[in-house]
Design brief:
Layout (H helix, E strand, L loop, with lengths): L11 E3 L8 H9 L4 E3 L3 E2 H5 L3 H5 L10 E6 L3 H15 L3 E6 L4 H4 L11 H15 L5 E8 L7 H11 L4 E7 L10 H10 L4 E4 L5 H10 L4 E4 L1 H5 L3 H11 L8 H18 L5 H7 L1 H8 L5 H8 L5 H20 L5
Parallel strand pairs: 1-2, 1-9, 2-4, 3-4, 4-5, 5-6, 6-7, 7-8, 8-9
Length: 336
């Protein structure tokens, strides 16, 4: 068994999200209570070509452990080769295979969720990677519940992955055709967890400690994976841990703490340099900043400014103005 599940542990995973869960954001979530990290997915072809940009996606700090590097592709031999290269470079705690990504550029190459339509190929990919990696590190998989509502086959796929030698399966409770719309089907997730003996990590519509507790109590999952909710509110891990322990909700994070984290994220991203210089980094982070703004008062106005941000100084000025403005409003609020 993966060690983070031992002794009754119920780990909280940060879901892998392309363009979001980079090294800096994973560090932030780890500090706020996330237990297990998974990198943004990386192309097995890019790893084999030793493409520097692709390799950058696999970077992580030891403080983020346990951490897995996620691969996508449709050729088991190439994915096995890529997995072994990653293990040689970075020694991750596990390799995760993406069988769930819904985006067209991945699906069109027969990767991600497209393999849910071809179980024999999926089985070959899974078993080839497991055999290729051997006992160096565990291999896990991430799936959706099916391609569409007419082909929900998550239980079958989970069973295949267990039989291939994988040691855990993360199940996103939506079909590929749903993308990120509609509701996650936790009944199917629960069926998967009951059908196999390896840990199943449930993913979908988790945005609070109450949600985590509900799914822990009402399903057989061994852990929870949180994705989009963490983009807006990375404190969700801290809040969930506290709720699981005490049954109480933490007070809402203050405006000052929110802006402190936003500024920290920006500074560390600039320092890392993955996206280029300060201006290039802040431009690349605009969508991330706008996600943060959804948890702030006057978010629409902030998003307009964030969509044009180019410097750390602008972030600091925006934070000061926003905090002072809301403090003034609070102090001058009159009850009629």
């Amino acid at each position: 068994m993966l060690h983070w599940f031992k002794n009754g542990n119920f780990p909280l995973y940060l879901a892998p999200m392309a363009g979001v869960t980079d090294r800096v954001f994973r560090s932030i979530c780890k500090q706020l209570g996330a237990d297990v990290m998974v990198t943004e997915f990386v192309s097995s072809e890019g790893i084999i070509r030793r493409d520097d940009r692709t390799r950058k996606y696999t970077e992580f700090d030891d403080q983020q452990r346990p951490i897995g590097v996620q691969l996508f592709g449709a050729d088991g031999e190439k994915m096995s080769e890529a997995a072994k290269k990653i293990i040689d470079w970075k020694e991750p705690d596990f390799i995760d295979i993406n069988f769930g990504c819904p985006v067209n550029k991945v699906v069109s190459k027969n990767g991600g969720s497209s393999l849910l339509r071809d179980c024999p190929v999926l089985a070959k990919v899974a078993s080839t990677v497991v055999k290729g990696v051997g006992d160096q590190v565990p291999v896990t998989g991430k799936i959706r519940i099916g391609w569409d509502f007419d082909s929900i086959n998550a239980v079958e796929v989970s069973t295949i992955l267990e039989e291939s030698g994988m040691q855990a399966v993360s199940v996103h409770g939506r079909t590929r055709s749903q993308r990120y719309g509609g509701e996650a089907d936790w009944n199917v997730i629960d069926q998967c967890a009951k059908a196999i003996s390896i840990p199943v990590i449930g993913n979908g519509d988790i945005s609070s400690g109450i949600d985590v507790q509900k799914r822990k109590e009402e399903s057989s999952v061994a852990g929870i994976m949180i994705g989009r909710a963490a983009m807006q509110n990375p404190w969700v891990f801290r809040e969930a841990k506290h709720y699981l322990k005490t049954g109480e909700q933490l007070p809402r994070v203050s405006l000052e703490e929110r802006w402190e984290l936003i500024a920290k994220h920006c500074r560390e991203a600039v320092q890392w340099g993955r996206y280029g210089n300060e201006k290039q980094t802040l431009m690349a982070m605009r969508s991330r900043l706008m996600a943060y703004s959804k948890g702030l008062p006057s978010g629409k106005r902030l998003r307009q400014r964030m969509s044009q941000i180019v410097s750390i100084n602008e972030i600091d000025l925006m934070a000061e103005e926003h905090i002072n403005y809301n403090k003034f409003k609070s102090e001058n609020l009159t009850v009629v």
